[in-house]
Write a structure and sequence with these properties.
heterodimer; A: alpha/beta; Rossmann fold; five-stranded parallel beta sheet; two-stranded antiparallel sheet; 12% strand; B: 64 residues; Ubiquitin-like (UB roll); two-stranded antiparallel ribbon; 1 helix; 7 strands
Chain lengths: 301, 64
Amino acid sequence: MRGCDCCDEPAVARVREPDRHFCATHFTGFFEDRVASTIRNDDMIKPGDRITLALSGGKDSTALLLVLAHLMPAWENVRIVAITIDEGIAGYRDETVRAAVELTADLGIEHHTVTFHDLFGDNLDTLLVGREREACTVCGILRKKALAVAAERYGATKIATGHNLDDEAQSVLMNTLRGDLPRLVRDAAQENTCFIQRIKPLSLTPEKEIAIYLMINNAWKVLPECPYTRFALRAEVRGILSKLEYRHPGTMTNLIETKKKIGRYCAGAQVSEPIRRCRECGDPCSAALCQVCRLRHSLGR
Amino acid sequence: MNIILPDNRGRTIDPGACTIEQVLTELGINPIEVIVSVNGRLVPEDATVSGDDEIRIIRVAHGG
């Protein structure tokens, strides 16, 4: 049996970049060190920050909360508030909300749940009747708004999300396929969500390594899959990209690097409309109406 | 060897001694998309398996 590169224990994981074998203890150290260096290199967290962490209860946000809770004592006066957005998706969200409640109770982290019903007057299942194929677009717009509302409500200075390397690479490819240059070059660190900065500490961490981290730390849960996933372009892009990554290791990282390069080339150029205020709700946006207000109109609300 | 697939269906194959990666490839599963335990213990995909080993394959990609 292959051993750990750092000790005599058997390896439980092989990391592809760099190519290393780790036992459970050294994998956990490697994983947490990479998240810590991602945070440090991009100056994501500063003393005094109050971080709203988007905790769906799924694997990525669970891993993010576990790592941040572990790293938090080393930061000066940093607090985390976990927010769960309950979209109202029957047979799916109840279990993940329960997982989020249990995790935050175990870690002693402040936790709040915000529902689509309270914010937008209905749950997602009802809003999507007859337009299920648009589920991810509609949900994404409303979820982003819900998170911004919660972040303001709880006095956040940062919004942390569990997007991983695979998610980020998929987004680069999806935005390229859609020809959406403004979204392609938008830097997460500069992205405005009611002017609260978004941070993605897992953005250099492969999805597979997140699963390994959770499995090693007894935090892996088998949860139901969102019933609307089958309509998403992301599901197709995920399959294509993971095949490419397997055959050509580094593909996902290369996509992220390419996005950064394009962003640098476009720096100072007007690739999207300037940020202004929505004429109906006053939120920052790049058109006369923000996405949420446009969506409300199209839903007849 | 006994294999438990991501959807919990069971399957038995007998390829002789081989790596987890070879088993996954034989099953048409991309190693990037799964983690694997052998006899209840998490292992890297270049670990060797044989005989009566029980291999559990767990899908990591999750829509949600």
